[in-house]
Automatic annotation (TrEMBL):
InterPro entries attached to this UniProt entry: Cupredoxin, EfeO_Cupredoxin, ET_Amicyanin
Lineage of producing organism: Bacteria, Bacillati, Actinomycetota, Actinomycetes, Mycobacteriales
Protein name, entry field: Biphenyl 2,3-dioxygenase
Lineage top rank: taxon: Bacteria
Signal peptide start and end residues: 1-17
UniProt cross-references to SUPFAM superfamilies, sorted A to Z: Cupredoxins
Keyword Magnesium: no
Origin species: Rhodococcus zopfii
């Protein structure tokens, strides 16, 4: 694992080696905060912490956590823009990540 991390650092960065630029908690069937702003190349970590309730962080064509009830999901944003994401299980759960 450490060797893979070191290799990744030379190219796309190693999310595990540094704290994320933004953390979004998933609890009480909502994203907190709903909106995050990170620099280009920044990372966002979603923490699934809703007592085992299944959630899904999905931005079609950009990123997809898969459906899960625990753990974390981290995505690195290499291009500027505004990314809207939702939970496919709870469509009223939405948020944005702004990369600039
Ligand atoms: Cu959900």
């Amino acid at each position: 694992m450490l060797a893979g991390c070191a290799l990744a650092t030379a190219t796309a960065g190693c999310a595990a080696a540094q704290p994320p630029d933004a953390v979004i908690e998933i609890s009480n069937v909502q994203f907190t905060p709903m909106d995050a702003v990170v620099p280009v190349g920044g990372t966002v970590e979603w923490r699934f912490d809703d007592g085992g309730v299944l959630h899904h962080v999905e931005s079609p064509g950009a990123f997809d956590s898969g459906i899960t009830g625990d753990g974390t999901y981290t995505h690195t944003f290499d291009r500027a823009g505004t990314y809207t994401y939702t939970c496919s299980i709870h469509p009223y759960m939405t948020g944005t990540v702004t990369v600039r």
